[in-house]
Design brief:
Chain A is mainly beta. The first copy, chain A, has six helices and 40 strands. Chains A and B meet through strand 2, strand 6 and strand 40 of A and strand 2, strand 6 and strand 40 of B. The structure holds pyrroloquinoline quinone (2 copies). Chains A, B: Belongs to the bacterial PQQ dehydrogenase family.
Chain lengths: ~600, ~600
């Protein structure tokens, strides 16, 4: 605890007393001087009330210090700051460094797991990791091989560890974990290997398992109350996790849970989305494939689902529904409502009532989206809540071994894992997006445990008849479902955004720029070329009263897989290699933290 | 040539006409806006007449842009700038990038050799490379596996290549090459593998071999004229390269040539030093072991030696004599003389007349040096020019299997490859030094081609009874042989220095700091923590009228071998692992270029 003395004494007391692990963490999250959680806060707003750096002075930003992680390939996530210590993680092999902010980032401790490199080929989209979490004096690392480790935050010593999955059957991890109360909530990857997705809660104290909820399967597996758990306002009924599947396909049904988690403490609900159903060949899995592609609201203590909303029934494009749920309070039609906004891979920006699961808005957040004409918003309609699929772009209707061309967005969606930010000041969402379309040819594939179970060949390219680039950074009004402004980018914006009370929004680009724009107008105020392409998320904190901005560089992720894994065949990397080939003209592999500040 | 349009038209004309490759390069070297050669100029002064950044404003320096090389481990050397293009190289696998300065470092071309990784274990001291050279529209890369490649500077296409050595017998390369006239001068590494050192001149036009001079062997191999080539003013006589060796030991005699080369165009002499005799066990090679540990002056066109000076006859400590020769014109005793100053691994700073080879000064540049009481400067003495060895620290006299303790400096010398700078303004040399001592236990070893041929066990530690650190950055008066000031550093200063007309001297530290100090007083004016430990050499150039400072980060080299190669046994890395173990508290592996400038 010595390292935390810089915290206000109230906080220190709170943490020492440790009535509940959550109380301490909540205090840290509420303190804008810390970056206590990957998502900025439990609401996933990635909004900081710090305003020393503001739209008038951000143009003077300078690099304050830097740190090389010693690992190449894609660096997602961000480094939490607790007190005077910053916790930097790396992609596989998932090293964790505790850096002393009082001493130019001197290394207080380093934790280097010994992981079997056999896990690398079963990671679909680079060896990324979205960062560590903090609670109760512990740092939580969820390794690529699904080992969940709790480290003493002060010493780096292992307190406990538990295996969450089995890499031999394709279960891996890239996500961070969400500490809630006395538990950490943990997801799983492997949708391209026929993994059946699950979310698990472990005890912060000792790592024992508290509950596990699968994305599909019997009611006892998916933790629903058939009468009380709702979908669009109606009870899901018995066997909802199996009765939209043919035979045992649900057992290898995908719906993995590798995205971002949010939490509403008042409702005690955890929110997250599930991924694509396996395989990518829709003909092999008739039915709606519930509960893949679904927003889920679950009780944090029991795991029992309060409501579901399946965005893309019977996916035909790999539009994983795992993107973050951003929780806001906004007025709609004169009523202050507890909202959940979600920018889905499928290209629709959804706003729901997060208490009831009522669907309020579903609009395209990229005009290029063409696979659907939109969502049926009529509660009395038999297709209520379902997107209307355009036959030309239906890989199911076109059939196996037919190349469906010109589908927008591409499989990596109008937005992938790169998290958006929300500013309560402007009431706008700032969304890093992909502006990419694809050709998609499904083919029959058979399942072998631990082997790729994809069943489609893809090609990707910039959205045609547009600005020629592969991305936009947009401001979105979640209540009206409208784009306020859109900044064209040459490549997908694969980095997470940060909004601040200084009326500035930050994001990174795949070429390696950190950019700052005016939160109201989108005007570019600052840019700096960091060592490598950015797929990390911008964070902010103060040290000694001064505001800093931090970002990890290190090109990779699905978009950067060509560079990261050294692939050159255009169809490799599930089609991303060809699409993003020009990236190698701008940047090379890296793994660096760059920290910015205003001049003294 | 399009890329070079920013050069003055006179230069462009000169280069297009290309009367001699050297004329074009000399013009570029004389233009301070370029960084046309690794060593700053042919004199190895590493002095720039640029003075936009000066001692009054250097404190405002900012990071302008950065570039990750995509490779980890030790990054030595620096990136040449020719016109608007910067050429960045990497350690093994020795990638070369041409970066567009007009476009934030966009990659114009990338050259990635395919090298057999089997060369890595036959590199003694990390997989470093000291950078590419430019001449005649070509970029010269001397790869780890000793392949010398000429690339079209504009396209990166291979123009020609030639193998300079054979990695199967331990011949490798880490050095840059020296373009002189219509030739490139090329050295070899492998003193720890019983390689017999040689220097070779290849035609710039087509890579054909012009001459090769071995460090030891018959007169025809070592390119001497027994009557005209002198040692301390006297002809070397016949068989000087074999008659101080027992039997055939000279055939595996070491004296490799992996350091920096300098050139005096008026004398047409190339200067360099030779490394340690093999093995490190002195008992196995009675005699002076000529011409290991020798400063050599050779005619650039024929390779014939004009003079030699052997600094450490019969080495007992691995004090390779390869450090750079810095050529200056200074007044001594009222006479303007053409001097050569050299800071040797053995801890002595030498000044010689570079035309005649006359020894003028030989003084300790670290007071900790204890293996010698000094050099006999009496021309009439029978031991003229020889260092007097202190018996206690003589590993020869103490004998095989005896641990000689407390020898200063350690095997990596008071200075290793890290090059010093010289300012004609202050007439001072700025020397990055090691402040490290050692225990050294020689043992009998037998030679097997391609296998380590070391024969000694070492331990290293900071110089006792001093400031506790392992390095100093010093200012040295080469005429008097005195230290003007000395800045203590926690670790050896393994980075090359740069002196500028702004009265500023720059250097990097193993923790990763770039530092700027007042050239007159040594006062620290600026420091910045770059991503990784610095063993590269600081360079400067202008783009669009603005002065920039560039430095490669990436910890490694012999000092950083523990981190670079992941070694933890203290005796590993020839004793460096234990000595520099604390480095891992400060930095991790990296490979980044950081470019600095004043604010706009
Ligand atoms: O289905 C899965 O289990 C799964 C896992 C992951 C992952 O763990 O990174 C990605 C995806 N799918 C995926 O579809 C995807 O677009 C993707 C992008 C990235 C990334 O980090 O850039 N990961 C993943
Ligand atoms: O004898 C040789 O051939 C040889 C080669 C090298 C090299 O090529 O780097 C080094 C050394 N010796 C050596 O003695 C030494 O101290 C050293 C340091 C370094 C470095 O780059 O940090 N290389 C070498």
């Amino acid at each position: 605890m010595r390292k935390l003395l810089a915290l206000s004494s109230a906080l220190v007391l709170g943490m020492t007393a440790m009535v509940s692990a959550n109380d301490g963490l909540k205090g840290l999250i509420d303190d804008p001087n810390q970056w206590a959680i990957q998502t900025g806060d439990y609401s996933n707003q990635r909004y900081s009330t710090l305003d020393q750096i503001n739209k008038d002075n951000v143009g003077n930003l300078q690099v304050a210090w830097t740190f090389s992680t010693g690992v190449l390939r894609g660096h997602e996530g961000s480094p939490p700051v607790i007190g005077n210590v910053m916790y930097v993680h790396t992609p596989f092999p998932n090293i964790v460094y505790a850096l002393d902010l009082a001493n130019d980032g001197k290394i207080i401790w380093k934790y280097e797991p010994k992981q079997d490199p056999d896990v690398i080929p079963v990671m679909c989209c680079d060896t990324v990791n979205r960062g560590v979490a903090y609670a109760d004096g512990k740092i939580f690392l969820h390794q690529a091989d699904t080992k969940l480790v709790a480290l003493d935050a002060e010493t780096g010593a292992e307190v406990w560890s538990v295996m969450n999955g089995d890499a031999a059957i394709g279960e891996t991890n890239t996500a961070t974990v969400l500490p809630v109360g006395d538990k950490v909530i943990v997801g799983i990857s492997g949708g391209e290997f026929g993994v059946r997705g699950h979310v698990t809660a472990y005890s912060i104290a000792d790592g024992s398992q508290v509950w596990r909820a699968y994305s599909m399967g019997p009611d006892s597996d998916i933790l629903v109350d058939p009468e009380k758990t709702t979908h669009l306002g109606k009870p899901v009924g018995a066997d909802s996790g199996t009765n939209t599947w043919e035979g045992d396909q649900w057992k290898i049904g995908g719906g993995t849970t590798w995205g971002w988690y949010s939490y509403d403490p008042d409702e005690n609900l955890v929110y997250y989305g599930t991924g694509n159903p396996s395989t990518w060949n829709p003909a092999q899995r008739p039915g709606d494939n519930r509960w893949s592609m679904t927003i889920m609201a679950r009780d944090a203590d029991t795991g029992i689902a309060k409501w579901f909303y399946q965005m893309t029934p019977h996916d035909e494009w790999d539009f994983d529904g795992i993107n973050e749920m951003i929780l806001t309070e906004q007025e709609i039609d004169g009523v202050e409502r507890k909202l959940l906004t979600h920018f889905d891979r499928n290209g629709l920006g959804y706003t729901l009532d997060r208490v009831t699961g009522e669907l309020l808005v579903a609009e395209k957040f990229d005009p290029a989206v063409n696979w659907t004409t939109g969502v049926d918003m009529d509660p009395d309609s038999s297709t209520y809540g379902r997107p209307a699929v355009v036959a030309e772009y239906s890989t199911e209707q076109n059939g196996e071994d037919v190349n469906s061309t010109g589908i927008c967005p591409a499989a990596l969606g109008t937005k992938d894992q790169q998290p958006a930010a929300y500013s309560p000041q402007t009431e706008l969402f700032y969304v890093p997006t992909n502006h990419v379309c694809m050709d998609y040819e499904p083919f029959r594939v058979s399942y072998t445990a631990g082997q790729p179970y994809v069943g489609a060949t893809l090609a990707m390219y910039p959205a045609p008849d547009s600005h020629g680039g592969m991305g936009n950074f947009i401001a979105w009004n979640g209540k009206t479902g409208q784009i306020e402004w859109s900044l064209p980018e040459q490549f997908s914006v694969w980095s997470g955004a940060l909004a601040t009370a200084g009326n500035v929004v930050f994001y990174g680009t795949l070429e390696g720029y950190l950019k700052a724009v005016d939160a109201t107008t989108g005007e570019e105020l600052y840019k700096f070329k960091t060592p490598s392409g950015i797929i990390g998320n911008v964070m902010t904190y103060t040290y000694d009263g001064k505001q800093y901005i931090g970002i990890l560089s290190g090109v990779g992720g699905w978009a950067g897989i060509g560079l990261a894994a050294g692939l050159t065949n255009p169809n490799d990397g599930l089609g991303a290699v060809g699409g993003y080939a020009a990236l190698s003209d701008y940047t090379a592999l890296g793994g660096q933290l760059t920290v910015f500040a205003l001049p003294n």
